[in-house]
Amino acid sequence: MQIAELVQLGISELTAAGIPDCASDVYLLLGHSFGMSRTQLLLGHAEDVSCDQKKAFLTLLERRKKREPVAYILGEQEFWSKSFLVNRSVLIPRPETEFMLETVFKDLKRTPLPENSTIVDLCCGSGVIAIILALELKRKVIGIDLSADALEVARKNCTRNETGTNVVLVQSDLFENVSLEAGTSLVVSNPPYVSTHSVLNEVEPEVGLYEPKMALDGGEKGLDIIERIRLQLPHVLMPGGRIFMEIGYDQGENVAELFRKPVYGLRDFRNVEIHKDYAGRDRVLQAVIS
Question: Which of 57, 59, 90, 220 has its CA 20 to 30 A from that of 106?
Fold first, then answer.
């Protein structure tokens, strides 16, 4: 069998399994199996494949037919033009989170952070946000997550991306086990924000069957963790401190109201904005604490 024939076989089987636009998946799985780039596969389309190569590819193809995400099959995902390890303990990094980081950096160009203030990646998962912040800002970042398994992935990603001592990882249920003493100038977070009903019934099989529910499920309306974060932030953010948070496409109005509404005994937020992503959907909360 030739490479081109194996490509067609892969596309046919994935299409039959209900996976649309699957050619890129096939080439990624083939490339991983053969140790070849897509260009090399295309140039060598008429080359014969060995039995071992075919077996290796078909093994991966079977996993994809069961709707396992390609990133988990390969064990890595590109994000911000860098390679990050991923497994079923962490969410697969997505373009929406890159958009949030772009929003953060645009704002920081206008208003730089105070020197020696603390930066936090809350619900850090695989560590992509903390790592990109540390590398781009040349500052120390604290990554916080409840999952020990997720933090282990984040540690490996810190090593892979050579952050040195600029990323500190802490296991905590939000800020409960962290003493920051209101010295934090920036919190960036991609918390669980999908409703329980959506996690169980509406998301794609790649998400619902394989990605960690702890990192997805935000309760009945998807707002449970966001509400907790809103109540804890006044205790850790310094005056003028900023929060940037990834949210669901239909949550902008509710999240904005949550942060605009005063809470007795806590400092208020001002300059509350909801940024729309490149598809025109609500995606990022930005707010400043008084």
Answer: 90
- Using DSSP, state whether 186 is helix, strand or coil: strand
Angstrom CA distances, 131 to 64, 149, 164, 253, stand at: 29, 17, 10, 30
| CATH of the domain spanning 77-289, picked from 3.40.50.150, 3.40.250.10, 3.40.50.620, 1.20.120.1460 | 3.40.50.150
Query: What span, in angstroms and rounded, lies between the C-alpha atoms of 204 and 121?
Result: 27
DSSP symbols for 46-87: TSB--HHHHHHHHHHHHHHHTT--HHHHHTEEEETTEEEE--
CB 177 within 8 Å of CB 171: yes
Token pair for 156: 């490996």
Rounded to two decimals, what is the model's pTM? 0.95
Q: Which two tokens stand for residue 165?
A: 């001592």
Q: Count Cβ atoms below 10 Å from residue 225 Cβ, excluding itself.
A: 20
* Distance from C-alpha of 121 to C-alpha of 188, rounded to nearest angstrom: 5
Task: Give the C-alpha separation, 105 to 110, whole Å.
Answer: 9
Secondary structure (DSSP) of 32-56: HHHT--HHHHHHTTTSB--HHHHHH
In the block, residue with structure tokens 């619900």: 123
Question: How many alpha carbons fall within 13 Å on the CB side of residue 116?
Answer: 0
pLDDT in tens, 107-130: 999 999 998 899 999 999 999 999
93-109 pLDDT per residue, tens: 999 999 999 999 999 99
